[in-house]
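Q: My collaborator sent me two sequences in one message, no labels, and asked for predicted structures for both. Can we handle them in order? The first one she listed is below.
A: Yes, handling them in the order given. First sequence, followed by its structure tokens:
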Amino acid sequence: MNKKSFLELIKLGYPLVLTSSTFIIMLFMDRLFLSWYSQETIAASVASSTCSFTISAFFIGVANYVQTFISQYYGAKRYKEIGKIIWQGMYFAVFAGIILISLLPITREIFTVSNHSAKVQELEKLYFTILQFGMVISIIGDVAMGFLSGRGKTKTVFLVVLSGVLVNGLLDYVMIFGYLGFPRLGIEGAGIATVCAISVRSILFICVLLRKKYREKYNILKSYKFDKQLFKRLLRFGAPSGLQMLLDMGSFTIFVLLLGRLGDLELAVSNIALTINMICFIPIGGIHWATSILASQYIGKNDYVGASRITFNSFVITACYVGLIAFTFLIIPDFYLRLFEQNNGTDFGKILEMGRMMLTLLGIYTFVNAIQFIFAATLKGAGDTRFTMMVSILSSWIFFVPMSYIFVEVLKLDIFWCWSLLATYVILKGIIIIIRYISGRWKHFDVIGREEEIKLIA
């Protein structure tokens, strides 16, 4: 392990680990409070929030790819180009918002065909509708956040995101349970709190972006014109990334919806297991983020050895961490499960019995998924987005989704077999991603038009 690149990764990565933790903690607080509120609300919250993210995933993926452009421009010292790509990202974000809101009457009906209980369906539609308005605001904020994260200003990103989490935590508590004069809103209150937190975060990111020193150095205000060629380049590399995110999340959403057909108890236990996975995945999200930024910056400098060192160091850190976490799933599963113990009459003994088995499979899933996540970060940072998209099509929609349907609807298998299928799917996908990275094909992509710039100079 190279000491210099390791320290570089830690310096940039630890604020992103904290930032990832604040994102996850915001969702965790929603789900924890809702699990205390009722079994129906925790059952509804994961499916509806997953659907909300899935419907928005393509647009989120494209908007987030602005960060890769900024990282490579920053590494190449092409500072004036940064303002241009930010504006193209903002134009795309506005377009995304119009589409998402226009589709609401249609996308809400996903829950009608889910075959969940009538009460759960009603809660799912309510929570989903509120979250979709928050997603529109979030996509705009993500473009502004990419300006900071792409240049490695990760401490500022953390402080801004933390402010949103604090707003969410306070509003969650008072609006779900009806404290401090607020009505007892349950899942509706959780949704409103999340949208308020996203709004605060996005406004702060835009305020930082418009500071005078940034406006001048990166040509922010003067680059507002629509640049057709740059916008097309953003779509060329960002659209496959967004589509891959959509395909992954779409397949996972279908899996969660199918689990709901096994019963409310099975859905609730699965949602608890997924929430535990989400919390334990916090550091991996930050390391993945840091890997993508640093690899992109090194690629912008045309230093592929440096990008490889960053990826290897990330792999070592990730393998050690997730290996330890997976081990705790095996030896102390009740510690995790009892965080969700309810005082509303639910037989928690059944949840414990089923949950212990689930955490064993969750350990396998978490370990392999985390490893492939790191290598995929470098592939995307280099522009190898079409390949990752094709992997998602083949693994998710040719294998995982059809087999999930067969397991639940045709073979009528129990939840253990369904989760075994999930573990198998992520192992297959991980093997393909790692082989692609080792092949070195990712070193031959030109995201920021370096070859075109050389031709112009010549």
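Q: And the one she listed second?
A: Here it is, processed independently of the first:
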Amino acid sequence: MKEPATYEQQIEILRKNGCVIKDNDYCLDVLSRINYYRLSAYLLPFKTSGGKYKAGTNIVSIYKLYEYDRKLRNLIFYAIEEIEVYLRSQFSYYHAHKYGADGYLNAGNYNDRHLHADFTMRINEEINKNRKLPFVRHHIIKYNGEFPIWVVMELFTFGMLSYFYADLFTPDQKQLARNIYKTTSKNLISWLRCCTILRNMCAHSGRLYYSVFSSIPAGIPQLDVSSERRLFGAVMAMRELYPKIDKWNTEILTSISALNEQYMDVINLNHIGFPVNWEALLQK
């Protein structure tokens, strides 16, 4: 186990590895607010094979890169929230009208991959976690803890929505994919998985810049191998799922464009998989 380093020692480590620090007080303030370990991740694109940093790497630019990433996370999280609310509405409406208000509790309404005990356990965990919310407390008191799907799905995380859809019968998957997005169930499963990963990274303040994603979005021919596992691939999946075309183009996309323009002096679009024509590709 490493011994903890003081802020002053951390500054010297950065300097020793080639990071330019002209103002110790500035750097100390940054380290005291962010944590050396978190900040050092933004230095990864600038490391040489010998472990030092490339010439010109400086703490001011690294902090600006961190700020870009933080603002981008907030923007993406806002967009995914709208997708999440939309999918809760669409999935619960379809399932309720086909299988009934409590059909989600019947293991026979899912495919063979479905782990019903785990699924119901996760639902109960969310109910217990949120039992003080007015609508949850209302159903516990008045309805003896019985929740129709259109109510309980308000407690589903994005990951639970993704698993719920993936565990439906194939005809249900196909109909929902066709009705909501005019796509295939294979594509929708893939996009949901990509956005689950992206959403969790944003929710837990994970680094988006220079990250490699574990899932590749299916059915998006505009993606090439240099983009599919970078942030751009995940954002393209988010674009496919976003419910409002006009709002995506005039609000989400323009906000991403403005943010990229603001930090163009420190970001490298290749590091997040954004190709030269990224704005045209993201247009819905």
